[in-house]
Amino acid sequence: MTAKLLELWQPPEGAGAAVGLVATSFTFDAEFFESACLSRFLGLDARRGESDRLVAVIEEEERLAEVRASVVVDRSERPSGRSLRWDLLTVAAPGGLQHAKTTLAVWERLVRIIVSSANLTPAGYRSQVETMMAFDLAPGASVPLPFAEELLDALVEIVEAAPGDRGRPGPKARALATLADARQRARGLGLPMSWPRRGLRAAAAPAQPGTSPLDQLGDVWSGIQPRRARVLSPFWDTADGRGAAAAALARRLAQRGDAAIRFAVSADHTTAGLVVRAPGTLTASVPKRVDCSFETFMAPGTEPRRLHAKVIVLESDEWVAALVGSSNFTEAGLGLSEHFGHLELNVWLGAPAGSPEGTALTALVPAGEPIEPQDAQWAPAVEDDVPVGAVLPAAFEDCLLDPAARTMTLSLDASSLPPRWHISLPGAGVLTDDERWRAAGSPRELTFDVAIDHPPFWVDVTWDDDAGPCRAPWAVNVTDPSALPPPSELRDLPVDALLAALASTRPIHEALRDALAAEERKANDAQLNELDPLKRHTTDGLFRRTRRLSGALSGLRARLERPVGNPEALRWRLHGPFGPVSVADLLLAEAEAGGRLPGEAAFAVAEVALTVARSDWGRAATPAVPVELLRSEAAAVVDELATRCAETTLADELAAYVEAAFGEAHR
Length: 667
Known about the structure:
The protein is of the alpha/beta class. Helix content is 32%, strand content 22%. The strands form six sheets. An eight-stranded mixed beta sheet has the order 8-17-16-15-9-10-13-18. The longest helix has 22 residues, at 539-560.
């Protein structure tokens, strides 16, 4: 257990730029995720609320546009305001919850898998006692490839449980692509194929109805059966007093001779005595031969912290193993029923008793004060891992915004829709309802025109069920994040500021901030502008602008030639606020407003086209974005710039140069 969980989201030195992220959680706080987790994963210099807003917006926009980031939560989670550049998938687990808390973080030279008990919330990372373990995949790492693929397989299964078509552009396809990319990278690292025979070993231990992580113990165990178990959990079986989890654990212990289970439980010292946050019937189904005892959990440190960690430790005299991850010590958490249970992801760790690793595993459940059952009051903690409010029916599958087409498409499963329902866009009224849907022929998909200048984060769904009227938000995702409009701060940039920022060797978020400040100072110097309104059209002014353009095009080419992690990132580089299409648009717009010499903008746009065509796309190519795709997209941009220039009237000699430049760019 560590007090610095957020550090695991930061790339270590030499990891390279962020590439992709898939994170799972039950409860979720979008603002915390963006400001504390995502910002660290991206390696942002400026964090929200800690620095100049413009710098933070520019840096976040650029970094986030270069990666694929996905969060998978339970269907009961209510979406809130967020950046639509990362995806939010919801899972309706049959008979239970999406309860896994595992994160895959991919950087250029490192793949990290974090298995945790912590939700993506401030409480999970800052105030509760949690467990978290990271496995780094890099050249020379000791983590075996089969183990890494077990964890990736479990994450794929969770993503596949989310609604949506994996074959169409959208959040599900992007999450699966990130997982596939991580797998491909892991296979190219030269990782070993097994753990050392006598050292630490690990095995993935997912849970779902009928699949228990307890069954995976043999993958890390060595020698005779364990005789002792220690259990740490914030929540326990309370529904019927059967104690299914305790009984299942007892079956994993030696069936002859001594055996014991020690339960570490939360307890409060009150004026009325010791109140134990566990059910008194916890051991009712454990055979009498197994000695059961209880101890208070002692939180590390001096500040009181709520227990949320989940650990099971099994021991013999020669070996020790520990289960860590998301599973509470309950029937649903451990997948002990064929009919109900949660989606969980844990890891078994095993090591020789007395070894440094084995000692560390034993210490995961520290000794506490013994509890005499007859002297305590038993009052189980109210489980917080339960849905609050109505859960959106699984029939409402996908809500996809297409920024380029300015449309929203709703995907519905007609076989399980409630009889009465309607869907509305916040602030814009009803989009459709059950009557309109049936009148339209009960289609699987409905498409509507929407404004995207301020895209919605969710739509509101109301429906009737047996309990009466219900309401829940339906999260909006996008087909292509690269087509989203930029933040308001980056719209209609002054072209000179953009060119100056591109020419700078400093990070663009710093260079653009300073360039915008310089442009503002120039604009405010009205007296100077009025004294010489034609100064912009002097030969000296043209030479200065030409030198600035040359430097900007060098910087633009360097940006285009950086390795690109996915096709959306490529399109954003070409069409985003710092790309060649935006540069060309700003140049032409300024010329139309009279801010350039006749033909100057067309000449500059032709130079932009040549820069795109001359870029070394082989340097930008990656396994996810082959050079053929890069050249195809670049050629399409050159065509787009040629179309824009064709609409301008030029002198004969300049027209001939522009035509020749585009002729070269097309080759």
